[in-house]
Amino acid sequence: MKLSDAINSMQFSPIRRFNPIAAEVEAQGTKIYKLNIGQPDIETPECFMDAIREYTNGTIAYQQSQGDSLLVDAIIDYFKRDYNVEYTEDQIITTNGGSEALTMTFRTILNENDEVIIPEPYYTNYNSFVKTAGGHVNPVKTSSEDGYQYARSGMLETALTAKTKAVVVINPNNPTGQVLADEEMEYIADFAEEHDLWIICDEVYREYVFDGLAPQTFASLDRVADRLIVIDSVSKRFSACGARIGFVACKNEEFMQGIMKLAQMRLCVSTVDQVGAAALFRLPKTYFDEVRQIYQSRRDAAYEEISKIPGVTCVKPKGAFYMTIDLPVDDAEEFLMFMLTEFSDNGETTMFAPAAGFYATEGLGKKEIRIAYVLKEEDMRRACQLIRLGVSAYKKKLELLNARIWRNQL
Ligand SMILES: Cc1ncc(COP(=O)(O)O)c(C=O)c1O
């Protein structure tokens, strides 16, 4: 018996792949600061559970495939209140997290071998989202030296072919923390209009922008309303990753009718979680101000510590809660294995995601890691210090090894 070619060609998540090794190391008593997964430690607002406790229906029935109108209306009000963007009920479909919103979106718009432009590095699961829909990622190369910029005249064009169907924008970006300026959004809109492409804008970190930047949405650009698909989720915004509630917002009627077929195929999204999520979208705007401040302090602490590593290149993130770090090591994956299995300082070590899996281009990102600043400020500092101590110990180990090889050759 054999599995499908499609499944065999898929990757395991580079973010979660090292978890079994970490579990063994923890079982032996080492403390691991986990910076590999974007799972915030901030508590989910109480209103989520309160709303569920007040839910009185005796039977937990299927919801509408489109979503609970309580949640859909709360989302519509949130967009109107915070961004002055008008959506109607038939322009929103709730999903099992942003992940299902993306899976269903690509299945709705892609034919076999169609291409999607995504600036790399990008959130690694896009490889699977696009592949399972029969498509192919065409990356636009960016680099730490130019701040991972991609929305500049001529850049997106490098990945354009006759098969390109869509351009994906993750804003604020995972894994780089890069945030688009207004004129960059205009350039992406021009590009999509000129080449008749869908714009898939993944805004799951929308509110988490720093240094006084104002949160923004692509949905404010009316001129692309008909080609814009906004992907969203409560996971990061409200620190509710396990609620598995996301949504697609789109003003293109044909797209919404198409994606509804997939929504109906999977029947509905968790009835109970939608009740809790509706309460989250009714939180006052001040909630974001408080959480944003927490992430900004963590970013500052992490950046300060990481900058102390000799030979490191690191762009200070402007948003989301990730940092991509170019380390002075040859192979970040080997370095991670060293950190987990050979290194500890006072019984502690740290883990992160090797960044190669965030690139489509073979060989890129080998020296880079992604950290998620999802731990308390003092823990972030300690975790980043451990990376610095680890780099130094790893280099010493390699020097010793090289010296031994050299001696044996004499
Ligand atoms: C950019 C981006 N999009 C989508 C997702 C999917 O999140 P969820 O399915 O929890 O909403 C993630 C998760 O890390 C992400 O970073």
Could you outline the blueprint of secondary structure elements for this entry?
Elements: H1 5-8, H2 19-27, E1 31-34, H3 47-53, H4 69-83, E2 92-95, H5 97-109, E3 115-120, H6 126-131, E4 136-141, E5 164-170, H7 182-194, E6 198-202, E7 228-233, E8 246-250, H8 253-265, H9 271-281, H10 286-306, E9 313-314, E10 322-326, H11 332-341, E11 348-351, E12 353-354, E13 368-372, H12 377-409
Parallel strand pairs: 1-11, 3-4, 3-5, 5-6, 6-7
Antiparallel strand pairs: 2-8, 7-8, 9-10, 10-13, 12-13
Residues 38, 97-99, 123, 170, 174, 202, 204, 233, 235, 241, 246 line the site of pyridoxal-5'-phosphate.
Structural description of this entry:
The protein has 410 residues and is α/β, with parallel strands linked by helices. The chain folds into two domains: 5-43 and 286-398, Aspartate Aminotransferase, domain 1 (Alpha-Beta Complex); 47-281, 3-Layer(aba) Sandwich (Aspartate Aminotransferase, domain 2). Helix content is 38%, strand content 15%. It contains twelve helices and 13 strands. A seven-stranded mixed sheet has the order 2-8-7-6-5-3-4, with helices on both faces. Strands 9-10-13-12 form a four-stranded antiparallel sheet. α7 (182-194) links the parallel β5 (164-170) and β6 (198-202). α4 packs parallel to α9. The longest helix has 33 residues, at 377-409. The model has no long low-confidence stretch (mean pLDDT 95). The structure holds pyridoxal-5'-phosphate. Pyridoxal-5'-phosphate (PLP) binds next to α5.
